[in-house]
Specification:
five-stranded parallel beta sheet
Length: 97
Amino acid sequence: MFQQSKPKMSSIIGSDLELNGDINIKGDLLIYGTINGDINCEGNITTSKDSIINGNINTTYADISGKVNGDLFAKEKISLSSTSSLTGNIRSKILVI
């Protein structure tokens, strides 16, 4: 009867949060804080310029503005902004720098 629109961002890691452990998420993820662990995401990962990820990322789309210490794999597209820093391997169909 009523259609519900899919939310743009299903989870947010705030700037004051440090997470130690792996993340498995089916929706989109917005990261402002620090993650020490691997991320498996079926949606889009977006990181802010002050975010830090110490671990590997496996996702569909990635929009990176922060620091990533680990491998970054995206099934479709990776965008790296001028504030991003990546130490590790990268693999995607499309790469935008």
